[in-house]
């Protein structure tokens, strides 16, 4: 497993694991040992696979529709980063909170979001999770413990920290997880939230999805460090790095951090090294030359879903046929959900002041 950790605030609190070379993931899959008794059950492995396939299929379709002008506004697609959401969310219940980012569809899908109200929300329809008033960047579901996507970069961590504070205050065992990017890791709000979470030993996990870019700016051009997890030392919490293209590595690292948080051990900064396949916005994006095709192809060789599917077959957890059946079912779900969203009504003008703070206090 790629995840490594050290205790907080002693010399260097970060154990480092470089992002894997393209060949490693494949080689690992080939050499995978026979199914061990220890480790995630077959059920967990299948659930994580399903989560990743659902995210990818949802995003591929949503991206296409945005590019075809069928969805109003911009979409930031999560394709490539699926292992992070799937591996973390596998440990969470609906009573655990998460905060998301502008790239948030994958987080909600992995948290149990259904396609119909998700597509409806993207289409701005009244049947959407936020009654069509949130859209891609404000989608949320209190029932699922999803406190919201967020167009404000770095806006999520203070909210997750506050939710963790409420969990501690209520003395329950629930945790909150803040997802944020490498770009967001430079925002003051992230530092403030992490500082406070460590100070009060809050059950909060800070998951940095380091995809190497903030919009069109490479990490090397926006921060003087390579590993965001190095910053954990300054907050006084453990910093852990894991391979964000390997769902098992994410599952293991997140599991440790979440268990520590549930048992009063305080927060962890978990950095997942990952990559987004499509442009910052949409699929083709603005056509700016800020990264090379070779770089994109190298990361695609470590694809989280393909690599995991090989592993599942080698472990005897799933057959090729069963894997194909998952893809077929999910594709059908997507199709039905799009139809549902397309046929759903827009919110009427009479609902304009509903579910917002206004002078009537509604
Ligand atoms: C406070 C704030 N500053 C700037 C922006 C513009 N902006 C939108 S996304 C983005 C980059 C975020 O990068 P990162 O956190 O690494 O997330 P990623 O897009 O890579 O998932 C920026 C600067 C914003 N939305 N909010
Ligand atoms: Mg980024």
Describe the protein.
- There is one protein chain.
- With 362 residues, this protein is of the alpha/beta class.
- It is built from 13 helices and 9 strands.
- Strands 1, 2, 3, 4, 5, 8 and 9 form a 7-stranded mixed β-sheet that branches. It has a two-stranded antiparallel sheet with strand order 6-7.
- Strand 8, helix 10 and strand 9 form a beta-alpha-beta unit.
- Helix 2 runs antiparallel to helix 12, helix 5 packs across helix 13 and helix 6 runs parallel beside helix 7.
- The longest helix is centred in the first third of the chain and has 26 residues.
- The chain is globular.
- It starts with a strand and ends in a 19-residue tail after the last helix.
- The site of magnesium ion has 6 residues, from strand 6.
Describe the structure in brief:
The protein has 13 helices and 9 strands.
Count, helices = 13
Q: Secondary-structure element sequence?
A: EEHHHEHHHEHEEEHHEHEHHH
Separation of the first and last Cα atoms: 50 Å
Indicate the radius of gyration in whole angstroms.
Answer: 20 Å
What percentage of residues falls in helices of 4 or more residues?
Answer: 40-55%
Strand elements, count:
9
List the helices and strands and how they pair.
Layout: E1 4-5, E2 14-15, H1 22-31, H2 42-67, H3 82-89, E3 97-99, H4 105-110, H5 115-122, H6 156-169, E4 176-181, H7 188-199, E5 204-210, E6 213-214, E7 217-218, H8 219-222, H9 232-235, E8 239-243, H10 247-262, E9 268-273, H11 293-300, H12 304-314, H13 320-343
Parallel strand pairs: 2-8, 3-4, 4-5, 5-9, 8-9
Antiparallel strand pairs: 1-8, 6-7
Helix pairs in contact: 1-12, 2-3, 2-12, 2-13, 3-10, 5-13, 6-7
The chain binds thiamine diphosphate and magnesium ion.
Thiamine diphosphate is lined by residues 101-103, 151-154, 181-184, 211, 213-215, 280.
